[in-house]
Design goal:
Elements: H1 3-10, E1 17-22, E2 27-38, E3 51-55, E4 74-86, H2 87-93, E5 102-106, H3 110-124, E6 132-142, H4 147-161, E7 167-173, E8 176-182, E9 185-190, E10 193-196, E11 199-204, H5 212-219, H6 222-242, E12 248-256, E13 260-270, H7 275-281, E14 290-291, H8 293-303, E15 314-321, E16 324-330, E17 335-339, E18 343-352, H9 358-375, H10 400-412, E19 433-439, H11 444-454, E20 457-463, E21 475-478, H12 491-506, E22 510-513, H13 515-523, E23 528-544, E24 547-559, E25 573-576, E26 583-588, E27 591-594, H14 606-617, H15 624-627
Parallel strand pairs: 19-20, 19-21, 21-22, 22-27
Antiparallel strand pairs: 1-2, 1-7, 2-4, 3-4, 3-15, 5-6, 6-14, 6-18, 7-8, 8-17, 9-10, 9-16, 10-13, 11-13, 12-13, 15-16, 17-18, 23-24, 25-26, 26-27
């Protein structure tokens, strides 16, 4: 039966609808229903009917993050009729000659976008505001015909010629229509299994499938490799907040599309949270925002002069089950939007990291927009594309040795990553201790707390502005965060220092990580300076008081002192690079700090190092006099 789709095509002003094809499925779902706009994710009406929700980027304010507010509604299609039809049958029904978009333009010129890239690298990444940021631009145009019929015609073009999309879809509601072929699942919660699918690293092959040597060169590119690992770290933070057992990583894999090839990982864990809460805690994907997430939103607001609308939001499908609802939510990228006046927008973005080439990022935005713009008839179609979207184009030329080299290169990416996040985690016996983890503006604290629990410490996380100096926990962990540790006019930095001084005076155990390690270093009298090159998403082999460790670093600033020297105040021992004096760690009675991120997927020795630090910090009370521990009053 094709009753619903045929009716949509035959009606001048059809009822609100969605047509969805999920990856690898030989069918499409046609959904027709009623539109309900709600204020919050928790208000999405899960009352027994299937619901498809368009979640705008401004919804990120539910997590307390900054976003330009354009009033884009959190729009729900409450489904009252549905049908499933075969892919070939649907393509045969959809308009064969889709409407072309006129007056193609771009809101930010190539030159201006390149300049914006340079500013973000210099002023944001270069000043410690984060590891990576996604900045968007928009291709624009207009149509004179019905938006409903336009998106159905463009849907056919995407189904026929785009490959490798996670969802290919068209949605029509009053005043807002969208069509896209998004490659990336943001989050799903199916039967209690939560999955995220970070995709990063982009290889452009606009003229056809790449040769083996080209793909191998892409897989060996440092910038592309680091870009993917950074977003895996960021999504593991979210998984640790949603899943009691954290997340396991699988991959990496190749994501093959008609003009682009990406690299991706799959993250999985279990959760019994309401799917709306899963979605709220994971707003939004670092692959379209940056990291750390909160600061990335602030940087986006500084460098994007207009609101994002639905770009980087999600299209969330809630399907009723016997036990509640399943959730499947792809990211709204590679998508075109049509408003009630016929204005068309195709927003795209590039991930900016410390080695980004501004002109290369400009080219990446053009490549990402190409598939959708081609479907819209705004640019000519390339001669080589996937057939009817059923199979991706070949990645290589068929050379078995080349394919083996590609598989080996992909597998080798995990050789230097932390196995903790990819293997089963057998919990350690309880240490009978509690830890307060202070979130200094980076959700790495969720991963750190997860590892502490794994090591037998009952850990809880509180924001820096809610932490109190009289905490009675056996251990206080001062977490990582963005920013300049020297800036005491920053309320966050000032509060961290105040809390740290109080804890030091109490003589109770304290561990400081990354930014908080730098704050501790200033309290201890060490100078802090910017690094010659930011270490954002860099793995280094360091010596921590005679113990070699491979650790991931995300820092722009560093304390400096001679290795094994003693700090001017507090009397802490220094572990630093012998050649540069860059401080890796500090230690003293009931005090320890590390510059690197022990919890990062980039830290294969992170868990062992954290366990060793806990052994030194959580000294039984009866042994304190043996160690000569006294309160240390900073001067």
């Amino acid at each position: 039966m094709t009753r619903l789709l045929a009716a949509l095509l035959d009606t001048a002003d059809p009822a609100p609808f969605a047509v969805v094809r999920r990856e690898h499925e030989p069918t499409l779902d046609v959904l027709v229903g009623d539109v309900v706009d709600v204020d919050r994710l928790a208000d999405i009406p899960l009352d027994g009917a299937e619901v498809l929700a368009l979640v705008p980027f401004r919804q990120v304010r539910e997590r307390g993050f900054v976003a330009h507010d354009d009033g884009a509604p959190l729009r729900c299609l409450v489904v009252r009729e549905r049908e499933t039809i075969g892919l070939d049958e649907a393509i045969g029904l959809l308009p064969e000659h889709p409407l072309a978009v006129d007056d193609l333009d771009v809101d930010v010129s190539d030159a201006d976008y390149a300049a914006r890239v340079r500013r973000v690298i210099e002023e944001e990444i270069g000043r410690g505001e984060g590891a990576n940021f996604v900045i968007r631009r928009e291709f624009t145009g207009r149509i004179e015909a019905s938006a409903a019929h336009a998106v159905l015609g463009w849907l056919r073009a995407l189904l026929e010629h785009e490959a490798g999309a996670y969802w290919t879809f068209a949605v029509h509601t009053p005043g807002l229509s969208a069509v896209g072929a998004t490659p990336e699942r943001h989050v799903s919660s199916i039967g209690g299994v939560v999955s995220m699918n970070p995709i990063s690293g982009t290889f452009r092959h606009l003229a056809g499938p790449p040769a083996d040597d080209e793909l191998i060169a892409f897989l060996g590119d440092v910038k592309e490799r680091e870009e993917l690992v950074m977003v895996v770290d960021e999504e593991l933070k979210m998984m640790s907040a949603v899943c009691p057992d954290g997340g396991r990583i699988r991959g990496p894999f190749l994501k093959r599309m008609s003009r682009l090839t990406h690299t991706e990982y799959l993250l999985e864990g279990r959760s019994d949270l309401d799917p709306r809460e899963v979605l709220r805690r994971t707003m939004f994907a670092p692959t379209v925002t940056g990291s750390p997430m909160g600061n990335a939103c602030t940087v986006i607001a500084r460098h994007e002069s207009t609101a994002r609308g639905y770009y980087a939001g999600v299209l969330a499908r809630f399907t009723p089950t016997a036990g509640g609802y399943d959730l499947d939510a792809p990211i709204l990228i590679r998508t075109a939007y049509v408003d009630g006046d016929g204005r068309v927008r195709v927003p795209v973005g590039a991930t900016l990291v410390r080695h980004s080439d501004p002109l290369g990022e400009v080219a990446e935005t053009h490549a990402k927009a190409a598939g959708v713009l081609t479907a819209l008839g705004a640019i000519p179609r390339a001669s080589v594309t996937g057939a009817r979207g059923t199979n991706p184009p070949p990645v290589a030329g068929g050379d078995a040795r080349g394919a083996d080299r590609i598989a080996t290169l992909l597998d080798s990416r995990n050789d230097h990553l932390a196995s903790f996040w990819s293997t089963p985690q057998a919990a350690h016996p309880s240490r009978g201790a509690t830890a307060l983890v202070i979130d200094a503006g980076d959700d790495f604290t969720t991963m750190l707390a997860h590892q502490l629990r794994h090591l037998g410490v009952a850990a809880r996380v509180v924001p820096w502005n809610e932490a109190v100096p009289e905490a009675s926990d056996d251990l206080v962990v001062f977490g990582p965060g963005p920013g300049d540790p020297r800036n005491e006019t920053d309320p966050r930095i000032a509060r961290l220092r105040e809390l740290m001084v109080e804890r030091l005076q109490s003589g109770a155990p304290l561990l400081a990580v990354c930014l908080s390690h730098q704050v501790l270093a200033t309290v201890a009298g060490l100078p802090i300076t910017p690094l010659p090159t930011p270490r954002q998403g860099v793995q280094l082999d360091v010596d921590l008081f005679g113990e070699p460790a491979s650790i991931g670093f995300y820092n722009t600033f560093s304390a400096t002192a001679a290795d094994r020297s003693i700090t001017p105040r507090l009397g802490l021992e220094v572990a630093s690079d012998a050649a540069t004096g860059v401080v890796h760690a500090l230690r003293g009675p009931c005090v320890a700090s590390v510059q690197g991120h022990l919890e990062s997927v980039l830290s294969p020795d992170g868990l062992t190092t954290l366990s060793r630090l806990l052994d030194g910090l959580l000294v039984p009370e009866e042994d304190l006099t043996t160690y000569g521990v006294r309160s240390r009053t900073p001067r």
